[in-house]
Every structure is written in structure tokens, then in C-alpha cells.
Amino acid sequence: MSSTATPQNDERVASTGLVLKVLRRPEFGAFLGAIAIFVLFTAVDTTGNFGKIDGAVGWTDIAAPIGIVAIAVSLLMIAGEFDLSSGVMVGTTGLIIGMLVTELNFGIWPAIGTAMLFAALVGFINGYVVVKTKLPSFIVTLATFFILKGANMAFTMVVTGSVRVTGTDKAEGYDSAAMLFASHVGPGGVSIAPIAAPTDFQITVVWWLLITAIATWVLTRTRFGNWTFAAGGDANAARNAGVPVDRTKIALFMYTSLSAALVGVMFVLRLRGMQAGQGVGQEFYYIIAAAVGGTLLTGGAGSAIGATIGATIMGMAYIGIPYALWNSDWTSTFLGIILFSAVMINTYIGRRARGGRK
Amino acid sequence: MSTTPALELVNVGKTFGSVIALRDISVTVDQGSVTCILGDNGAGKSTLIKILSGVHKPSSGEYLLEGESVNFDSPRDAMARGIATVFQDLATIPLMSVWRNFFLGNEITTGWGPIKFLDVKRMRDIAKAELLNMGIDLRDTNQPIGTLSGGERQAVAIARAVYFGAKVLILDEPTSALGVRQSGVVLKYVLAAKERGVSVVFITHNPHHAALVGDRFYLLNRGKLASEYQRESLVLEDLTKAMAGGAELEALKHEIGR
Questions:
Q1: With an 8 Å Cβ cutoff, is B119 touching chain A?
Q2: Nearest to residue A42, comparing CAs of A355, A353, A320, A232?
Q3: What are the structural domain ranges in chain A?
Q4: Among the four A68, A72, A170, A173, which has the fewest Cβ within 10 Å?
Q5: What is the ipTM for the molecules in this complex?
Q6: In this complex, is the C-beta atom of B105 within 8 Å of any C-beta atom belonging to chain A?
Q7: Which of B8, B49, B41, B44 lies closest to B26 in space, CA to CA?
């Protein structure tokens, strides 16, 4: 290392002002979209509540569980991989916990631990198979998805004789676990009462915001984050530079699976039971949230905040459409249009801002 | 500077099943010099570079690093011994910033105990200063490296290898995809690396580029060493002719009849 040059502020950097810096953020398009959608639903609102705290309680409740997994899915997509088994994993972990406590008399905490271990294992297998066989993760996790989907239904039928598990709230330790994963927070404090005050936010929202902050920090300010971008940007170049690409990807598959498990824990505690089909189809919502938030489907670019904004947009749509007395059968169509426009806008802004080419 | 060559191949051969890719290759890379390995497509350049960088092991012969026989299991092994390879297209990640690319895999972190985070400011400053030392003057190391020209990207990869202590730098056709001006840029950095005491192995099929920077030249043809030249005795025309297959070119001239 030498010290001949001491670069100070280069005069040729036409003060890359705050504006352009913000414009270059991959989630900028989504942020604009979120504001537009908020304004739209506030305008067409028939209840007068959408723009108020009651409305926010509603849409954050929808957005939080989507956001928690979407952040993980986003990181995985930045590393160049997909996980289609993330939705069904929510149901699988919920069912594991439900059956362990109702059939084998597990305490709720050991049951949560077991389910988390199982999720970590599935994530590891997903990742290991993808990096070793070099098959597309789309196919590998599609297989995992269907294997788990079938197992969820078959096991539940065999064990309980129905398509759902109930009674998790009778397990030992339920209250302490519910306080952490399934309570609601408001001016009256933290509570696990089944009926929440209209201004009480779900504790899942706190988890969601916390995870957004941590994931953002990890992604932009740690070696692991650097390797995540590198693995998705160009795996060969990353390997040549000494980045452990395979390990990074496997870790991200495990993180995605564990995020889904966390949401499974939240649902099984809050609903005090679990449907065998829970979570199936959610994997697309996570991918939509990530893509709306500016994460590149081909890997190499994206952010955690983007996924959070994407989840916010979906939450607002789910609450705003009934508030506006629109036919909620159209919700998916609405989300499809949002996805398409967001990706178009992101691509456009990205092209203009990134290269500095006009 | 000692007189032990930085790197030496002695009668190295490589076979893949019944295919003989290389035979009896003896190459000497002197310390702080630029050694050019030239050859047309299919001459065995790629196999040779893979042996040098640790991707393949030689089937026969010896690989000496500073006089000591070595046997690398992987490119990482070779890297740990100070042999860095800059591959043609596989050197940098386009969407990542220049400084992130510069430090990729060697990130500087600070922090408390197990909580470690990137020392962004320091990495930016070092990247900028190091690039400047190599004569690469970038406006902003925060810009994605994909916005740089091909030559500049190669240059960043070279500067990175030099900064992280490469003693031997292997360049795989660094100018093949570049225009004339950009090639000139890269050749300048090859010499800059040499001036900093790095031994460079420059693999190319362009004799003009080789002649500009090389100290010693090896010509590969059909898996064998066809000839060897020193800088002092080199005549560019000989090199060009030898590469094109000398006599064959004459015959071609007659055939085409002009």
C-alpha cells in the first residue's frame, strides 16, 4: 500500500446531489408508487378511515407477514436464486407446531424450536441441491413446494382426521410465545386478547420493521451483503475474487425458509390453529413484493427496503379496495397491474439514473 | 532482485484422455518482467493459462514457483501463493460499484466482537488512491463498474491484483475484446504493474500488443513451443510471420495469387 495520492473531493463529481442519489436507489419507483396508491385509496375511500390510524392498522397487518418473507426472498433474488417453497413453508411450520403440541403434548417453545430446525433443514437442502446440481432454483424449489404441499395435506388428514389443527393455545408456554409473536400493541400496552382495539398494531409490524432495518444493514454494510450482490451479479467473477458463492447462497436459502417459518409461528399462535393449505400461493406475493420494490429478477440488484415498500403496496390494496367498496374479486388483477407498472417504471428509472446516461 | 525466476514450467505436458493439449512446454518468467505467450486459436493458450492459474494440474513435467516445486489444487491455492489471474470477461461484477469490486472477497471490516461491518470510507479512499497510483483516474469509485469502458475495467482488475500482493499476474487475453485506444490503456497498466515489481504473464494472440510490452516471447503452436524470442533480438515481422505459420502464409499468398 502506498500513500502518494490523497484523493479528496474530486472536482469532476458534479455534486451528485441528494436528488440523484435518491433517484438511483432501486426502490425509488416503488416508493413513488406507494405514495400514489396511498393517495388513490384515501381519495376513493368511503369509510373515511383509510388515511387514519385505523386504516394503517389494517394494511400493516396484511403487509407485515408478506414483508417479513419478501425481504428474505428479495435477498435471495439479489443472489440470483428463487424460492417457490417459501409460501408453503408457512403452513408446514404452523402444522408441525400444531401437531407437536396437540398430539405429542410438546410445550409451545420446544415445538417452535423443532419447526425452526425443520425449516432450516429444508432451506439447507434447497440451497445444497441448487449449488451442487446447478439446476435452476425455480425447478428445485418448485419440487420442494409440491412435496411439502402434499405432505401438509396428507399428514394433517392422517393425524387429525380433518384439514386443520386446532387448540395450540392450550399448550404450555402459549402466553409467553404469543406475547412475542402474536400480540398487539397500542396505547393500552401489549396484549394477546383475541379482540384488538381498533388502534392496536400487530406485533408482527414491529418484527417487520426491525427485520427491514437489520436486512438493510446486512445487505449494504457487511461482507455477507457484498457477497450476496456479487453472487447474483456474476457468480464466476465472484468466485474468481474468492467469494464463497455456494455458502452464501445456501445461507440465503436457509434464511428464506426460516423467515417463512417465523410467519408460520406467528399465524399458528394468532389463529390458535392452522389450515393444511395455509401459505400455498403466498410465494408469488413475496416475489411480487420483491420485484415491485426494485429487486432484479436476474439477480445482482435490489434492496430490503424495496421489498418492504412492495409489501406495503399490497397491504394497502387489500384494505383499500373493500374500503372503496370496489369488488374485491379484482384484487389480484389490481396487484398484477401494479407489478407490471412498477417493473416498467423501475427499469426506466434504473436505466436513466444508473449509467448517468440520459 | 534475485535471479531465481518468479515462475518456471519445465517440460510440462497436459493430456485430456487421448487428446494431447500441451507437450514439453518449458517457460521461464523472470521476476519483474513481462512474459508474453502468443498463439493462434487452438494453440493451447487456454490450457497453459489454466495450468499456471491452478485450474488444471500438469500431466507431466514440473511447475516451479521461485525455484520451489508446487502443485496447486485450485485457483485459490495459487492465489494464496501470490499468483493472481485476471480472466478476460470474468473479472468484475458490472452492477457493483468500483470500490466494492476492488475489495470483493477482501473487504475491510471494523466493528465490535462478532458484529463486523464494512469500513466503507476507508475502502473508497484506498480504492481511489490505488487506482490513481496505477494511473487510473476515476471520477467516482461509487459508480457501478459496468459504466466504465472495457479497458478501464481490466485496469481496475489489474490494480486490484497488484494491491492485494500478487507477485505473478496472469492476464488472459486482456486486449482481445478492446479497440485500439482501450488496448493501449490496458498495456499501460501492464507496464505499471511491472514497474511495481510484479511479474506479468501476458497471454494474447496479438503480436503487436505483445511486442509493445514484452521482455520475452513464447510462441505456442499446436500444443508445442514453436519458438522463443528475447526483447533485444525481436523483430516484430518475424513474430507476426511465425504466428501466422510463416511458410503457410507464403503458400496462401501464392494460392490467392496476388
A1: no
A2: A320
A3: 29-41+48-350
A4: A170
A5: 0.81
A6: yes
A7: B8
Residue of B nearest to A15 (CA): B140
Mean model confidence pLDDT for chain B:
82
Of B85, B103, B125, which is closest to A7 when you measure between CB atoms?
Answer: B125
pLDDT of amino acid B245: 59
Put simply, whether A300 touches B (Cβ < 8 Å) is: yes
Backbone angles phi and psi of B135, in degrees to 5 = 85, 15
Give the highest mean pLDDT range of A205-209, A350-354, B15-19, B178-182: A205-209
Scan for cell 417457490, then name that residue: A84
| Residue among A12, A217, A237 whose CB faces B93 most closely | A237
Cβ atoms within 10 Å, residue A152: 25
Which among B87, B95, B129 has the least Cβ separation from residue A301? B95
| Contact assignment for B139 to A7 by CB distance below 8 Å | no
**What is A29-41+48-350's CATH topology?**
ABC transporter involved in vitamin B12 uptake, BtuC (1.10.3470)
- The cell for B169 is 499476474
pLDDT digits (tens, 9 = 90+) for B172-184: 887 777 777 778 8
Cβ under 8 Å to B: A residues 228-257: 229-230, 233-234, 236-238, 240-243
Higher pLDDT, A296 or A120: A120
Q: What cell numbers appear for B11 in the block?
A: 517440460
Instruction: Pick from A218, A221, A236, A240 the residue to mutate for testing the B interface (most B CBs within 10 Å).
Output: A240
B128 vs A5: CB contact, 8 Å cut-off?
Answer: yes
Which domains occur in chain B, in start order?
7-90+166-256 (3.40.50.300)
Distances (CA, A) of A210 to A68, A177, A188, A215, A221: 10, 18, 22, 9, 16
Residue A8, chain B, CB below 8 Å: the answer is no
CA B36 vs CA A211, B118, B170, B211, B236: distances in Å = 53, 38, 10, 8, 13
3-state SS record for chain A = CCCCCCCCCCCCCCCCCHHHHHHHCCCHHHHHHHHHHHHHHHHHCCCCCCCCHHHHHHHHHHHHHHHHHHHHHHHHHHCCCCCCCHHHHHHHHHHHHHHHHHHCCCCHHHHHHHHHHHHHHHHHHHHHHHHHHCCCHHHHHHHHHHHHHHHHHHHHHHHHCCCEEECHHHCCCHHHHHHHHCCEEECCEEECCCCCCCCCEEHHHHHHHHHHHHHHHHHHHCHHHHHHHHHHHCHHHHHHCCCCHHHHHHHHHHHHHHHHHHHHHHHHHHCCEEECCCCCCHHHHHHHHHHHCCCCCCCCCCCHHHHHHHHHHHHHHHHHHHHCCCCHHHHHHHHHHHHHHHHHHHHHHHHHHHCCCC
